[in-house]
Amino acid sequence: MFGITLFVLFVFFILYKLLLIVPMREVNVIERLGKFRTVLQPGFHFLIPFFDRVAYKHEIREQVLDVPPQSCISKDNTQLEVDGLVYLKVMDGKLASYGIL
């Protein structure tokens, strides 16, 4: 009885690792045995258990980072307070994971 339960759990684990659903607005970078294989777009995908793994997950929506306010002095000796926003959007999952610029 214990062996059957263990076998069923093992089969369930294999099926869980075999199927991958990538949600909308997200891309997944897949590595096979530690090396880059592909970038999966949103949808339903099959992976080879124990060989393929999801290395990175990237949000492809535009993200906003708030830069905190900073005070500075201009050329004409007036004190200014500067703050800003940075907009980020991942265009290529491979370059976002492994690219060095």
What would you say this structure looks like, in words?
This protein has 101 residues and is of the alpha+beta class. It has one domain (2-98). The protein has two helices and seven strands; from the N terminus they run H-E-E-E-E-E-E-E-H. It has helices spanning 2-18, 93-98; strands at 19-22, 26-32, 35-40, 43-46, 52-59, 63-73, 79-88. The chain has a three-stranded antiparallel sheet. Strands 1-4 form a two-stranded antiparallel sheet. The model has no long low-confidence stretch (mean pLDDT 91).
Give the amount of beta strand, in percent. over 45%
| Relative helix content | 10-25%
Number of helices: 2
How many structural domains can be distinguished in the coordinates?
A: 1
Low-confidence stretches: none
Strand order of the largest sheet: 3-2-5
- Outline, from the CA principal axes? elongated
Give the biggest beta sheet. 3 strands, antiparallel
* Alpha carbon gap, first and last residue: 57 Å
Radius of gyration: 23 Å
Counting copies of identical and different chains, the oligomeric state is single chain
Tally of strands: 7
What structural class do helix, strand and pairing data support?
A: alpha+beta
